[in-house]
Design brief:
two-stranded parallel ribbon; Rossmann fold; 23% helix; 13-stranded mixed sheet
């Protein structure tokens, strides 16, 4: 690790066998020959002189063997919206990018093809419009369709960052998280920015009154959705939508409703007609329903009718949503 001022005399000719490079909180001279074709791992964190996206793209062209890339507060906030030519990092498998704003990341992904990347993690401080970032990432990994999506929108920043995690059919995983911004919009933007016809698994949890139930209509029309995991307000949305129309969730076989312990009073105040709940679940021909949290003991519902259809009913103590099935 080089953590002090980095002078042009250092490695003036470039170390011929350099494979891993980690630079943290230093004044960089970006033109020095440290960035070379032998690099397989590059980690740059909070340099004193940040770089424009176009200059970074040019720099990465000198590292075609790169497999792992970690950038933390490297890019300058301004950027030129003019589309650049597409480059490629053919061996890159993992990228972790942390920036205050998403615009430079959008430009970065628009300039690169990362079709072999198995993991892309983006963290931004503020995200008011997720559409461009989601679309540019999907484009950079080859436009493949998501197989599973997990969305978590905690009530306060102290409860964790809001995030969306997307896994493709090729087992590529994309995670976008934010500290501030339009948390409520992240869910609807994700569902409208992505092509969902191949979506098999979906999980969402949120504690906010800013989200309406329209997201359920989007999911309910998907013909391949097999597993649905809902937490807190999302679970209440589902309960309120019952009974469902016959064409909603045609392929759904696994359902989990996860209510936090501190959130039980909301379900207590919500008048639950357990006969409607059980009848609707029976109509859906589910193979398994998991009720997570002691709140489901309210009213002591009898799930015998559901189990008689061959559905497995599981009642278990509350577990954090982040420890879900997928």
């Amino acid at each position: 690790m080089i953590s002090s001022s980095l002078h042009s005399e250092l490695f003036a000719q470039g170390p011929p066998l350099l494979h891993r490079l980690r630079l943290a909180e230093c004044q960089l001279i970006w033109a020095i020959p440290l960035f070379r074709q032998t690099l397989v791992s590059l980690h740059i964190s909070r340099p004193h002189n940040r770089i424009f996206v176009e200059d970074l793209l040019n720099l990465l062209e000198r590292t075609p063997s790169l497999e792992r890339l970690h950038l933390h507060n490297v890019l300058k906030p301004s950027w030129d919206a003019t589309r650049t030519r597409t480059r490629s990092l053919p061996r890159l498998t993992k990228a972790s990018l942390t920036e205050p704003f998403c615009a430079p990341l959008v430009h970065l992904f628009e300039g690169y093809s990362l079709i072999k990347a198995s993991s892309i993690i983006c963290e931004v401080n503020t995200l008011h419009d997720a559409h461009p970032l989601i679309r540019s990432i999907c484009q950079t990994i080859g436009g493949v369709l998501p197989h599973s999506i997990r969305v978590h929108l905690p009530y306060l920043q102290s409860f964790g960052r809001s995030y969306i995690a997307i896994t493709t059919g090729k087992r590529q995983k994309v995670t976008i998280s934010m500290s501030h911004g339009d948390r409520a919009g992240l869910l609807s933007q994700a569902l409208t920015a992505l092509s969902l016809e191949s979506l098999c698994r979906f999980a969402v949890a949120f504690v906010t009154e800013d989200i309406d139930t329209a997201w359920l209509d989007v999911l309910g029309s998907l013909t391949r959705l097999h597993t649905l995991e809902l937490g807190n307000e999302a679970a209440l949305h589902f309960m309120q939508s019952l009974p469902l129309s016959s064409n909603q969730f045609p392929a759904l076989r696994e359902l989990e409703l996860n209510i936090e312990i501190d959130y039980e009073h909301d379900l207590i105040e919500f008048e639950v007609d357990w006969e409607i709940v059980q009848g609707s679940l029976m109509e859906m021909q589910l193979a398994e329903v998991c009720f997570t949290g002691g709140v489901w003991e309210i009213g002591e519902p009898d799930w015998q009718g559901l189990t008689d259809t061959g559905c497995r009913v599981i009642l278990r103590e509350w577990t954090p949503f982040t420890r879900g099935r997928f």
